[in-house]
């Protein structure tokens, strides 16, 4: 364990908004809130002070600082807390910034639809697992209102960055339609555009030109007619799933007459290692980031019995359990034990090469998606980053400081310092000793609301019971 005692205790301050139960609007929950605040000891409108924690700010390297954290109006502040502030004694526990899920699929069902509302459950599952910011990559108009409701603390969930409805061969068939779609999504207020497979090269280039002119980023898949390097040249913001990587590492003739499988899994034996250097150089020169979603591919190529035996399986509705199980069964013939190991090993090598070269690697698992249960999957993704060769601190950076820096918002979130969003996770065990310790969550704070373990457990138990 690393404790830096050179710094005196300081007051990074913050005040938590009045707590709100999962998925409830303010109007529906006002009376329950008061009762919960008393019963659960949830901080209310007074400043909140977190004391006696070992804080990994992510700004001081892999060193813990023994500092008090003060929260006011949803942010850390450098101030002396007033009398009457709510004080939480962390009793030596470890504190890290909240984590990001940079490839999320936000359900479209309205968040005030009632107890069976899957979207409210997904938002809660993310928060319960320490995800305090998510980038939605399957947009819907309802997400615009949801983003605002979350920012106003009318709903419990992570802060959102949202894409519009995706650009694909079906949704953007012509250049004119694609240009209109870009402009409409920019005007609507989406944060980015989502690229799906199927776009023709001509339409993709029209999307890219218009997006660049309108100053809205585009991200996601690599469309087959375009290829990775041309996508980077056009200004694609992130490459998700390592899409197009393996295809770039083989000879062009190997791309014809192939039975394409899961992001180049069918091409691993044909990869030319000499091409890796130019791939990484192209990525670095472009300024794009990669969002590996490694755990998605581990699941697709994994053992169905093992996936169904995970404890988080209980947090999947029955229809998703069936659908995900069918997807894994359908992929079973695509992999042998040897080809699975080769495919996943190559992907982890590429993740490590990107990170060591300075290509931004952003933590994202693709959830909810095939056995990627929201929130739980981000800890599998952290483990995959460690298996790729990143240290625990480096793995944590992919879900904290790296995405904040990449989005030009390092002064707003991603670390623990005055002025940043009061998003953090309290852990029982040291994540720098073992990245798996990010699962030992004792409490989560999201935009200043402190959620103790008992409140998290109550919400999880409610979901489990409804999904039985």
Overview of this structure, please?
With 468 residues, the protein is of the alpha/beta class. Helices cover 37% and strands 16% of the residues. The chain contains 16 helices and 20 strands. It has helices at 26-40, 118-128, 142-151, 175-188, 201-214, 228-233, 245-248, 276-286, 294-300, 304-309, 318-331, 337-357, 376-387, 392-398, 401-406, 453-467, and strands at residues 3-4, 11-12, 14-15, 47-51, 54-55, 64-65, 68-72, 75-76, 86-89, 94-97, 99-104, 131-136, 159-162, 192-195, 217-220, 238-240, 289-291, 424-427, 441-446, 449-452. A hairpin with a 2-residue loop joins strand 19 (441-446) and strand 20 (449-452). Helix 2 (118-128) runs antiparallel to helix 16 (453-467) and helix 8 (276-286) packs across helix 12 (337-357). The two termini are 40 Å apart. The relative contact order is 0.15. Residues 1-45 and 111-115 have low confidence and may be disordered.
Q: Unreliable runs, pLDDT <50, ≥5 residues?
A: 1-45, 111-115
By DSSP (H or I, 4+ residues per run), the number of helices equals: 16
* Oligomerization: single chain
Roughly how much helix do the residues carry, as a percent range? 25-40%
- Count of spatially separate domains: 2
> Which of globular, elongated, flat, extended, rod-shaped describes the shape?
globular
Major β-sheet annotation: 5 strands, mixed
In terms of DSSP E residues, the strand content is 15-25%
The first-level CATH class of the largest domain is given as Alpha Beta
The secondary-structure class comes to alpha/beta
**What would you say the CATH architecture of the largest domain is?**
Alpha-Beta Barrel
From the alpha-carbon coordinates, what is the Rg to the nearest angstrom?
22 Å
């Amino acid at each position: 364990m690393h404790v830096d005692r050179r710094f005196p205790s300081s007051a990074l301050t913050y005040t938590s908004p009045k707590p709100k139960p999962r998925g409830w609007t303010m109007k529906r929950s006002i009376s329950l809130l008061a009762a919960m605040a008393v019963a659960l000891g949830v901080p209310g409108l007074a400043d909140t002070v977190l004391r006696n924690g070992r804080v990994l700010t992510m700004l001081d390297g892999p060193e813990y600082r023994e500092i008090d954290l003060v929260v006011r109006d949803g942010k850390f502040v450098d101030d002396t807390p007033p009398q009457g502030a709510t004080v939480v004694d962390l009793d030596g526990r470890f504190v890290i910034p909240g984590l990001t899920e940079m490839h999320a699929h936000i359900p479209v069902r309205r968040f005030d639809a009632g107890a069976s509302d899957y979207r409210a459950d997904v938002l809660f599952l993310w928060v319960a697992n320490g995800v305090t910011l998510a980038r939605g990559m399957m947009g819907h108009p309802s997400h615009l209102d949801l983003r605002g409701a979350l920012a106003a603390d009318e709903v419990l969930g992570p802060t959102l960055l949202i894409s519009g409805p995706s650009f694909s061969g079906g949704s953007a068939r012509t250049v004119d339609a694609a240009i209109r779609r870009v402009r409409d999504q920019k005007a609507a207020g989406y944060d980015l555009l989502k690229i799906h497979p199927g776009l023709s090269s001509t339409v993709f280039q029209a999307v890219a030109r218009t997006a660049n002119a309108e100053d809205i980023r585009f991200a996601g898949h690599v469309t087959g007619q375009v290829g990775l390097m041309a996508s980077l040249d056009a200004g694609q913001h992130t490459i998700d799933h390592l899409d197009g990587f393996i295809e770039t590492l083989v000879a062009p003739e190997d791309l014809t007459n192939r039975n394409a499988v899961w992001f180049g899994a069918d091409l691993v034996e044909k990869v030319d290692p000499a091409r890796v250097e130019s791939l990484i150089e192209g990525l670095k020169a472009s300024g794009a980031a990669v969002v590996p979603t490694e755990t998605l591919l581990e699941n697709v190529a994994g053992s169905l019995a093992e996936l169904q035996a995970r404890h988080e399986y209980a947090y999947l509705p029955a229809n998703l359990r069936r659908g995900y199980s069918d997807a894994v069964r359908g992929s079973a013939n695509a992999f042998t034990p040897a080809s699975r190991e080769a495919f996943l090993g190559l992907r982890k090598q590429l993740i490590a090469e990107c990170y060591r070269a300075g290509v931004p690697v952003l933590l994202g698992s693709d959830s909810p998606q095939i056995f990627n249960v929201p929130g739980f999957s981000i800890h599998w993704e952290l483990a995959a980053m460690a298996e790729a060769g990143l240290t625990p601190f480096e793995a944590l950076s992919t879900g904290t400081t790296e995405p904040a820096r990449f989005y030009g918002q390092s002064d707003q979130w991603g670390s623990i310092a005055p002025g940043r969003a009061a998003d953090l996770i309290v852990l029982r065990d040291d994540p720098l000793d073992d990245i798996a310790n990010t699962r030992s969550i004792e409490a989560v704070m999201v935009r200043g609301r402190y959620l103790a373990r008992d409140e998290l457990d109550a919400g999880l138990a409610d979901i489990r019971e409804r999904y039985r």
